[in-house]
């Protein structure tokens, strides 16, 4: 349902600054008045005709004292046009009587002043006023030529030619003023892309430091928005969704007694798709979930719009009919309006952070590959050459070289696995589970581990930044099991039902008997990553041996899953 007219907030128009006399503008008008005064005396030889110039000065007074006034300034410009055009007829007649200028061309003495009011209106970006002044010019030119008296200038070809010439020039001034304004305005220096990026990032850093904790977290902002909406609108279920690319949405936060499998495609016949396309709130008498038990339902979908771009949606649903009249819609939009800007800032911050993190990981991978890895390979070749040139009987030295060569090979293997980890990312078309499975298979093969998978992944997706953090946590858990546990089997479970997710890595190794500092540092890193996405890290012993590392995000659904889990063993 479109937004009622009374929910559209009025944005006040820009107003001019305080009325002040601008020296350049005043000087231009004075010079023009002096010019037409001199031309008038030259054309007529009658100082009495300067009365028209005095009348022009009076008409121009509002341009000096009330140039910013919404009514007086346009009336002043209209008065200037009327006086100028009337004066043109009388001065043309006087010039012809005095035999100074023939055939009505005396109008050329005063008509140049028309450029002043027309150009002023055009430079103030008032095209409709300019068109009105042109029409007023044509009418008063005819009136001035008809009422001028002796000589009847309106019937003189020279008068008509002069009037037509200045009407054409006035039209050019009116309709080409924007181009003229841009030419007269000094161009703004265009900053270089990296300089602009530096400026924006510096501003973002300053703002982020001044805000309270977690304010730039999309999930936290979404949960706070749902809390605010709970006070103004009824609802048994609610959610905040944002775009994830590929025409799909991701659930940032949701509330309700039960978890809901919301519709997340934008090409479906739903209030979600309509609200996204129209940028207007939509009400419906059906649920916006993929699977609903039926019964009376009222749903309200409100787009979150920042500027001209839709960045997300808020869905409210209740099991009562007609629960969202226009008054409730208005109250909801009053809350979602300011929240849209906060959420957009958080999403942009997430994007910048993800781009920076990925770029740094790729840089480190390149440096390791081109630096330490290549140097270790050369060390290995040197050991091989030393073994080949050993004299007979140096068995002890040969054994030490073989042990050293094995250690170099192990380090190179570890480096290659580290490169693989640094380059691993979640494919936006594949999902989180395939990315974890690829990493587990690669490390399991290198360590001779038998890897068992259990996946239960919804078609809905988590935010990209959240998926990236979950992948890194799973990688660290798998790496720790491979390096330190001495396990034979590895069990990897991935359950994703946005905004809920649980990644679990179990092994049948020796547990936490090993207290190596690097292992403990890995656990610290995993805990920090989990905290960053508002998840929790759980480490428990596995019976009869081994360890289970799990990261849990959100609360599990309270309904039966409609998806079948997939269980497979490595190599099958």
Largest sheet: 6 strands, mixed
Give average pLDDT, whole number. 78
Task: Please give the number of β-strands.
Answer: 11
> What proportion of the residues form beta strands (DSSP E)?
5-15%
End-to-end span in angstroms? 53 Å
What is the quaternary state of this protein?
A: single chain
Q: How would you explain this protein's 3D organization?
A:
The protein is α+β, with helices and mostly antiparallel strands and 572 residues long. It has 16 helices and 11 strands. It has helices at residues 23-44, 50-59, 61-65, 72-97, 115-123, 127-147, 157-175, 177-184, 193-210, 218-230, 271-278, 326-388, 395-423, 432-447, 464-485, 517-532; strands at residues 237-245, 248-256, 282-284, 298-306, 309-318, 450-457, 489-497, 500-507, 536-541, 547-553, 566-569. The strands form 2 sheets. A 6-stranded mixed β-sheet has the order 9-10-8-7-6-11. Strands 2-1-5-4-3 form a 5-stranded antiparallel β-sheet. α15 (464-485) links the parallel β6 (450-457) and β7 (489-497). The longest helix is centred in the middle third of the chain and has 63 residues, at 326-388. The radius of gyration is 39 Å and the shape is elongated.
Would you spell out the secondary-structure blueprint of this structure?
Blueprint: H1 23-44, H2 50-59, H3 61-65, H4 72-97, H5 115-123, H6 127-147, H7 157-175, H8 177-184, H9 193-210, H10 218-230, E1 237-245, E2 248-256, H11 271-278, E3 282-284, E4 298-306, E5 309-318, H12 326-388, H13 395-423, H14 432-447, E6 450-457, H15 464-485, E7 489-497, E8 500-507, H16 517-532, E9 536-541, E10 547-553, E11 566-569
Parallel strand pairs: 6-7
Antiparallel strand pairs: 1-2, 1-5, 3-4, 4-5, 6-11, 7-8, 8-10, 9-10
Helix pairs in contact: 1-2, 2-4, 4-5, 4-6, 5-6, 5-7, 6-7, 10-12, 12-13, 13-14, 14-15, 15-16
């Amino acid at each position: 349902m479109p937004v009622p007219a009374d929910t559209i907030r009025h944005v006040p128009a820009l107003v001019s600054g305080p009325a002040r006399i601008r020296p350049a503008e005043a000087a231009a008008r004075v010079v023009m008045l002096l010019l037409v005064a001199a031309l008038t005396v030259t054309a007529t030889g009658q100082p009495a005709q300067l009365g028209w110039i005095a009348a022009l000065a009076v008409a121009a007074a509002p341009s000096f004292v009330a140039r910013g006034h919404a009514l007086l300034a346009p009336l002043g410009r209209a008065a200037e046009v009327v006086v100028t055009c009337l004066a043109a007829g009388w001065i043309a007649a006087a010039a012809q009587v005095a035999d100074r200028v023939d055939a009505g061309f005396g109008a050329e003495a005063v008509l140049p002043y028309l450029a002043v009011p027309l150009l002023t209106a055009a430079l103030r970006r008032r095209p409709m006023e300019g068109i009105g002044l042109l029409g007023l010019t044509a009418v008063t030119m005819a009136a001035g030529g008809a009422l001028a008296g002796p000589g009847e200038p309106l019937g003189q070809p020279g008068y008509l030619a002069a009037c037509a010439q200045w009407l054409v020039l006035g039209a050019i001034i009116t309709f080409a003023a924007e181009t003229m304004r841009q030419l007269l305005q000094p161009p703004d220096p265009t900053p270089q892309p990296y300089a602009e990026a530096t400026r924006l990032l510096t501003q973002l850093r300053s703002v982020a430091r001044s805000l309270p904790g977690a304010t730039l977290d999309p999930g936290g902002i979404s949960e706070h928005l749902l809390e605010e909406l709970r006070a103004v609108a009824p609802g048994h279920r609610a959610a905040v969704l944002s775009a994830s690319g590929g025409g799909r949405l991701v659930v940032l936060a949701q509330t309700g007694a039960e978890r809901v499998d919301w519709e997340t495609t934008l090409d479906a016949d739903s209030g979600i798709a309509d609200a996204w396309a129209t940028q207007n709130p939509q009400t419906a008498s059906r649920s916006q979930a993929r699977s609903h038990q039926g019964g009376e339902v009222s749903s309200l979908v409100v787009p979150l719009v920042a500027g001209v771009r839709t960045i997300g949606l808020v869905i409210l649903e209740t099991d009562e009919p007609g629960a969202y009249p226009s008054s409730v819609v208005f109250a909801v939009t009053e809350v979602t309006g300011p929240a849209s800007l906060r959420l957009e800032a958080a999403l942009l911050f997430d994007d910048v952070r993800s781009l920076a993190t990925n770029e740094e990981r790729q840089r480190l991978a390149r440096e390791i590959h081109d630096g330490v890895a290549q140097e270790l390979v050369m060390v290995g070749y040197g050991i091989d050459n030393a073994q080949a040139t050993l004299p007979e009987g140096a068995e002890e030295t040969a054994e030490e070289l073989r042990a050293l060569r094995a250690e170099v090979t192990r380090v190179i293997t570890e480096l290659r696995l580290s490169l693989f980890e640094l380059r691993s990312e979640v494919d936006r078309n594949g999902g989180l589970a395939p990315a974890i499975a690829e990493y587990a298979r690669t490390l399991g093969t290198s360590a001779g581990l038998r890897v068992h998978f259990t996946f239960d992944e919804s078609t809905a997706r988590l935010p990209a930044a959240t998926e990236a953090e979950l992948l890194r946590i799973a990688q660290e858990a798998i790496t720790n099991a491979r390096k330190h546990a001495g396990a034979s089997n590895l069990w990897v479970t991935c359950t994703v039902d946005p905004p809920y997710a649980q990644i679990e890595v179990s092994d049948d190794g020796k547990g936490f008997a090993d207290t190596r500092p690097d292992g403990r540092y890995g656990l610290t890193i995993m805990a920090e990553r989990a905290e960053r996405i508002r998840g929790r890290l759980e480490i428990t012993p596995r019976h009869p041996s081994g360890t289970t590392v799990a990261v849990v995000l959100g609360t599990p659904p309270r309904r039966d899953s409609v998806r079948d889990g997939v269980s497979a063993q490595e190599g099958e």
